[in-house]
Amino acid sequence: MKVVILGIFILLSIALIGWMLAEVKAKFCQYESTDDEVEAEKETNARLLKGGWKEMSIKDVIKLISTKGFSAN
After folding, report:
1. Distance CA 38, CA 31 (A)
2. pTM for the complete prediction?
3. C-alpha dist (Å) from residue 56 to 18, 36, 64, 70
4. How do residues 26-70 score in pLDDT, each as one tens digit?
5. C-alpha span between 4 and 8 (Å, rounded)
């Protein structure tokens, strides 16, 4: 029984240390997009909008999905 409790404590400790490292990394290592990435995103958005794509809100999505299931006639 003591081995199980020790194992759970070690696993929890490792998880908390990993979480702490991830939080520190997120705080101090900021990601910045390069000019090429910004230009590629603009081109992609222009192509999508030209093709008639528009981002839907959650209300639009709910209107389109079937919440009643599939009914085969």
Report:
1. 13
2. 0.45
3. 36, 27, 10, 23
4. 999 888 889 999 999 999 989 888 888 888 888 888 877 866 666
5. 6
